[in-house]
Each structure stands twice: as structure tokens, then as C-alpha cells.
Hints:
The complex is a heterodimer.
Chain A: H1 3-14, E1 18-24, H2 33-42, E2 48-51, H3 62-73, H4 78-91, E3 97-101, H5 103-109, H6 111-121, E4 125-128, H7 140-145, E5 149-150, E6 153-154, H8 160-169, E7 174-177, H9 190-203, E8 208-211, H10 217-226, E9 229-232, H11 234-242, H12 247-266
Helix pairs in contact in A: 2-4, 2-12, 4-6, 5-6, 9-10, 10-12, 11-12
Chain B: H1 5-9, E1 17-18, E2 21-25, H2 28-45, H3 48-62, E3 68-70, H4 72-78, E4 82-87, H5 97-110, E5 115-120, H6 124-136, E6 139-145, H7 146-151, H8 153-161, E7 165-169, H9 176-189, E8 194-196, H10 207-215, H11 217-230, E9 236-240, H12 245-251, E10 261-267, H13 280-283, E11 285-289, E12 291-296, H14 321-329, E13 332-337, H15 339-353, H16 359-373, E14 380-385, H17 393-400
Helix pairs in contact in B: 3-5, 5-6, 5-10, 6-8, 10-12, 11-12, 15-16
Keywords (chain A): Amino-acid biosynthesis, Aromatic amino acid biosynthesis, Lyase, Tryptophan biosynthesis
Pathway (chain A): Amino-acid biosynthesis; L-tryptophan biosynthesis; L-tryptophan from chorismate: step 5/5
Active site (chain A): 49, 60
Amino acid sequence: MSRIEGVLRTLREQGRKALIPYITAGDPHPDQTVGLMHTLVDAGADIIELGVPFSDPMADGPVIQQACERALRHGTSLRQVLAMVKTFREKDDATPIVLMGYLNPMEAMGQEKFADGAVDAGVDGILTVDLPPEEADEVAPLFTARNLDAIFLLAPTTTDDRIRAISEHSSGYVYYVSFKGVTGAGKIDVDEVAANVAHIHELTALPVAVGFGIRDAATAAAVGQVSDGVIVGSVLVDTIARNQADPDQLKRALSDLLHPMREALDSLPS
Amino acid sequence: MKLTEEMLKALPDARGHFGAYGGRFVSETLFDSLMTLEREYKRLRDDPEFQAEFDRDLAHYVGRPSPLYFAERLTRETGGAQIWLKREDLNHTGAHKVNNTIGQALLARFLGKKRVIAETGAGQHGVATATVCARLGLECHVFMGEEDIRRQSPNVYRMKLLGAEVHSVTSGTRTLKDAMNDAMRDWVANVDDTFYIIGTVAGPHPYPLLVRDFQSVIGRETRAQCLDRTGKLPDALVACVGGGSNAIGMFYPFLTDESVELYGVEAGGLGIDTGQHAAPLSAGRPGVLHGNRTYLMEDENGQIAGTHSVSAGLDYPGVGPEHSWLKDIGRAHYVSVTDDEALDGFRKLTRVEGIMPALETAHAVAYAIKLAASMDKDKVVVINISGRGDKDMQTVAEIDGIEV
């Protein structure tokens, strides 16, 4: 059983929902990332999605685009991101780490070398935004052989046939994108999300985590109620941008944001 | 590799691959739209009514066929092979881009989409899109890098006059690649009612297929005109390559004609060895960007590299996947010329033939002159004059230190 599966199974048995924060590695500075990851765990994170910065993040809105630009200004490379995870693992052997990013930096490293490096660093899952399962037939076996979970996106536009096919290629969880748009945009329609996630649950036994549009305790609770977990990204990254000058204040601000979400999720009737 | 009609018909394959290249590397939200577009296009491709409307628009709105012109004086001055010019610059809106926007706008109408988006570099594709949208009464949004807006201001104003909204893109390098990123972002958010008219043979499947099909009219006409005027096929075709739409349109109908040498000319910028260029086929390596696997300019960590070219339309770090395939199988030659050589080509064609090419096209002109000079007098070289140069007068004037 992978670390991700284990954590999600335990949560399910406890009747709790997963809180999955996203930050971009190297933002605001590579030296701060490991510390911020521990802060996220202390504030209640069950799984961390760690963004691998890319020069052309097509699926992201301005907030995460700028985070990528900040990280790349300091030369954050995929190699360094793996080193950050390895350092994180020195103090935390329990929290699953999912690398989230775009295909090109992974291909540039070499898929096999990347898969080896990810396992060696203690990474648990890989989510490649611009890699649909149709194009993953070369890389998927590399991940499977190393017990790395391949996490794919589902969207409001995904047809039933594709939901089934994508779920078959996935392990750990599936990531449901709550609305049509880029990260950080738009307002989430909780009723629509509830209906769509319920439908996805009919088609796959995998846990369904929902991202895009979750910005506070209220939206976290509303979405947590109808799914297995919530992914929180842009609002955290925006907080990093606004507090980048003061590392201690930044940690406090991230905690202050996540704590109420954790409490709201844990107050949901199980 | 000897290419046959059967081999070409099988490409791209069902997943949109040209050999190792192409494909559909997009976020999940767009997948269904791309599947729908592919399905509908494959249906309409064989629909006589759709094709007849496309041909009618090319004839009466664009002004096709465009002439194949014998550049007699340039040939004499060069002192080698005969140089012929395929005059895409004479199309309505002044470039080859309109062939494709006519086709895609018809698709948009057949699919019932009321809102159109496009990316543009030099502004030629943006103008061509705004033009067809004006004619069909479609809402038009064009994404253009802030840097390109500065250097192609006449085209920006043309788009606005045509009723398009021009969105200034301030992310990344503020050029064509970033405009394409923002167009993709808009499309994800508005996928239900929006048709994305991509201007080049890149992007996710089926775009490289349909742009190539719509642009292939260039090569089909050239083939017939050359046979008619010279009694034989050309010996060499020369076209500039940014994303590669005018080149693929020219090359495609000649791919099985082994005797016809194909030359795609990339932007060498300040010189390939300086790193300041936009020549992924000459100096890049395969990677994934904007929905397809293709040759790219990137650093050792897989970050897309900044590009440089005097011409905004070639200032792009990727290239259409079919070109990547043609490079690997050795069917086409990909070469580059520098900014300075392209400017010489621009001045030469302007002064010797009275035809002012776009700076993009000037790259093909510069290379073709060198090529023709090395060939016998009985050989025929055709240059695709993909666009006219009026839009570049400000750039050239700045280089000359003149205020216009």
C-alpha cells in the first residue's frame, strides 16, 4: 500500500476528509520551501502537493504563474525540488508528497531518471497537468514499477467513458477540477461539484479530491462534505506572495489560513 | 525514406502523432473539446458542401489562386537557378494566414460557436482572424504579447478597426509563446462557447492537421502553376518556419515528389552560436509545449528558453510537429539565416523586384538567393512569399535610425 493510499484509508476509517495544500517549490525562495512544508503539516495538511515550477504554466492563473516566475528567478530546478523532498523526509516520514507540474521538465531530466530520483527522495505521487493517460503509456509503467501513484485530473467536461479510463490509469486518488478555468479563477458552484463528484464516485472506487476555487473554511467544508478531500492552492500561494519579505510572518499567515479549514473539515458530520 | 501517398494518409495517426511528435498534451478540461473538433473536422473534411464553401471563399474573398511570379531581375542578378515567387502576400489581409482562418472560422460556424479567440505574434494571424470574424459576425479576442504589440503597432490598430479586442499579454517573455499560453487559459475558461483559431501548425491534435489541410492550397496551386509555366516540377521550395504553417502548406503537396528539395528557413537571430535565435529545428531538442511534442528551445532543466528574432512572427521556441518528423526522416532540410541576412533579403527583394516581403518571409528570400546562386540556370527555385512587409516598416526604420 502506498503512503497516499494509507493516509486516505485511515482518514476514511476515521470519517475525516483530506486537507491537501499546494505550494510551488522554490517560492518565495528555495531555502524556505522545506520549512513551509513542515508548517503546512503542523497546520493540518494530510498530503502536500508540491508544484514543480515551469516557465509556461498554461493551466495556471496569474497567482501560480507568478509563483513559478519567482521560483525560476532563483533557478529552482526539478533536481532541486527532489532534494527539497529528501530534506523534508529527514523529519517527516509520514506525510505523502505529490509532485505537481508540467511534462517538459520531467522529460528533460529523463523519465526513468526522474522516476528513480522521485522514489529516492521520498515522493509518493506524480500529477502531470499536461499529460493525459492517452500519452502516458511510456511513463506509467515506470511509475507503477516504483510504487509511485499516478494522479490524473478529471474535469467538468470529462465524459463518462474517460472518467472510467482515467480512473483505471490512476492510483492514490483522482483530482477533480471543480470548474472550467485556470487555477485561482472563478467561483466554485458547490451544488454542481456535489453532483459531479457523486457521479464520479459511481464510476470509480478511488478517493476523489477536489481542487480549484477552495479559498476558506466555508468552501473547504462545503466541498469536503461531498468529496474525500480538498486541494487548496492559489489562496496559499497568494499568501506567500504577500508575505514574502518576512519568513516568520509568512509561516504564521499560512497556518492561520489552513487551521480554520482543518477545523471546518473535522467538524463535518462523518 | 521514400514517402508514399498511403504513408501520408496514415499521418497523423489516431492519437495525432507524426512519428514521435504531435499528440494531445493538454489539461483535462480541453480534452473533450479537442475530441469534438477532431470528429467534426473529419466529417466536414469529406463534406462537399463545406469544401465548396471554403473554395468559394478562397476564390472570391481571399483572391486565390495567388500568382506564381517569375522574378526575372532577381534571377539575373543572382546568376543561378530561376527564382519564382508564390505570391501569398497578395492575399486579402496580406499574408497566407487568411487561408487557415477562413477554414477554421467556417468550422466555428458549423460547430455553433459565437466567440473566437486567437494568439498572434507579428499580428498577421490576429488580423486574418479579426477579418473573418468581422465578416461572419463573430466576437473576436486576440492575445498578443506586450513586446509584439509595441513592434507591430499598425497590425494592432488594424485588429481594433476590425472590431477585435486585443489583449496585451504581460507574462513570461511577452511574445508569441506567452500569447498562446493566455489563449489556452481563456479557452479553458470559456470552452463551451469559444472556438480557438490557432494560427500555426502547432498545438494539440487536431490543429496541426487542420491548419496543414487549409494551408495546403499554397502547394497545390504552386504545383499546378509550376507545371503549367515551366513544364516541370520545381527543383527546390523555400519557406520560412516559425511555427511552420506557410512552409507546411507549401511542402505538403510535394512530399512524395522526391526530386523536389524542401528548405525550411528558421530565424537565426544574432547567430545560432550566440543562443539568441528562434531556431528549434536547427539547435533545439524534442520536448512538450503547447499541447504537442516537437523540437523546442529549452534549457537543461526543461524550462522554455527565451527566443530572439527581428521578426515577431518567427519569435517562437517551438515548431509544428510535422516539421519535426520531416526533419528526422530527412525529407526536408531545416536551415537558418540571421537577422542581418534577413534584412538584406528584405531590401534586395524590395529594390530589385518592387516587392516588399514581411521580415518573416525575408528569411526565406535570403536563403533562397544563396541557394539559387549555387544551382544551375535550368533549375527552378520557388520561394513562398508568405506575407507583405508593410507591417514591418517601423521595425526596419528603427534599425535604420529613421523616424517615420
